[in-house]
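Propose amino acids for all 351 sites.
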């Protein structure tokens, strides 16, 4: 026989359940009380604003890798008016068939680490992402380059608004193509398959977890122009990103069925950059403006941002002949109570 009895645990449990039920829509609360299966839309289980937050970040990392490959730090010394005095090891790029790269292959990679934060009360979350992209391409004649890249992005967010975490992993396979239209103007186009997985946990209104995956695509194009003025390299770019991810329906661990959802994003980008050649280094600064032109969930007052980037590129010589290393740091400003800070490392080896 128990030494004493008490009803307080039952009272606490009942109060917890009542509080949880009180926070549910009336129809869902009645399903919970009756013990019936709960069916909710994707916008209730997964806040669509946070979904677009991750989609925007992932698409930029994937598309930005190819744009970096054909950016001014990679192609600058193939342009008319490039400084005559260059460090040993500088190798020409697309548009110049006289050097090793003009006759052979190039392997390259980009790595990024980002800090993400969303301070809006209904979508409060913070975390980090890591991304890596590697590519291989070959010069086709004097003005064309074709290749393929593979990318991996992993993001982890602490979702305060639902008392849980989100883990998102994205894998992409992207063929790409570059055309040096003139000595100073070039066009790059890329597009490929994207596969994503996502695992979620929550404690609001009750503890539960779930996992789903998506199939999608990413298309991007960019028109770039660059010009040397003495030791200064000035460049500009206009680009477009189009992506779609179709997430499968799933059932959470508490029996909650979550409907399928589709995330879409179309974004335009305009960028300007200035670089200074200090043999064998090239420091630079970049300002980019991005605007969401279409998407699954867009706010009319929160559709654009500015990216401020500063970095320095190194051109190898001797044993490092053919190597370009590019380190940069950037911050994205302009989104309402959202922040994204990133450090990046780009490597290119011509052989």
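Proposal:
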């Amino acid at each position: 026989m128990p030494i004493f009895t008490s009803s307080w645990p039952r009272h606490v449990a009942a109060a917890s359940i009542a509080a949880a039920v009180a926070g549910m829509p009336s129809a869902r609360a009645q399903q919970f009380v009756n013990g019936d299966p709960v069916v909710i839309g994707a916008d209730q289980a997964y806040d669509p604003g946070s979904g677009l937050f991750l989609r925007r970040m992932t698409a930029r990392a994937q598309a930005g890798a190819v744009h970096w490959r054909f950016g001014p730090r990679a192609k600058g010394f193939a342009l008319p008016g490039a400084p005559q005095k260059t460090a040993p090891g500088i190798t020409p790029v697309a548009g110049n068939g006289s050097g090793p790269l003009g006759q052979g292959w190039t392997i390259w990679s980009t790595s990024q680490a980002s800090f993400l934060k969303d301070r809006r009360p209904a979508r409060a979350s913070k975390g980090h992402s890591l991304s890596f992209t590697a590519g291989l391409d070959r010069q086709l004649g004097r003005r064309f380059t074709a290749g393929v890249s593979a990318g991996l992005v992993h993001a982890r967010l602490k979702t305060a608004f639902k008392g849980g975490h989100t883990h998102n992993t994205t894998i992409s396979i992207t063929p790409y193509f570059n055309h040096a239209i003139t000595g100073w103007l070039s066009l790059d186009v890329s597009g490929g398959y994207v596969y994503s997985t996502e695992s979620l946990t929550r404690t609001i209104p009750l503890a539960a977890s779930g996992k789903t995956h998506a199939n999608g695509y990413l298309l991007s194009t960019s028109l770039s122009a660059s010009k040397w003025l003495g030791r200064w390299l000035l460049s500009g770019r206009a680009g477009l990103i189009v992506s779609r991810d179709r997430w499968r329906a799933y059932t959470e661990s508490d029996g909650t069925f979550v409907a399928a959802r589709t995330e879409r994003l179309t974004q335009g980008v305009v960028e300007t950059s200035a670089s200074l050649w200090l043999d064998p280094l090239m420091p630079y600064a970049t300002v980019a403006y991005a605007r969401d032109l279409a998407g699954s969930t867009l706010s009319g007052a929160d559709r654009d941002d500015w990216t401020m980037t500063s970095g320095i590129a190194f051109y190898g010589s001797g044993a490092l002949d053919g190597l370009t290393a590019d380190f940069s740091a950037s911050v994205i400003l302009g989104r309402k109570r959202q922040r994204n800070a990133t450090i990046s490392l780009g490597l290119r080896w011509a052989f």
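The chain is about 15% helix and 55% strand. The first strand starts at residue 39 and ends at 40.
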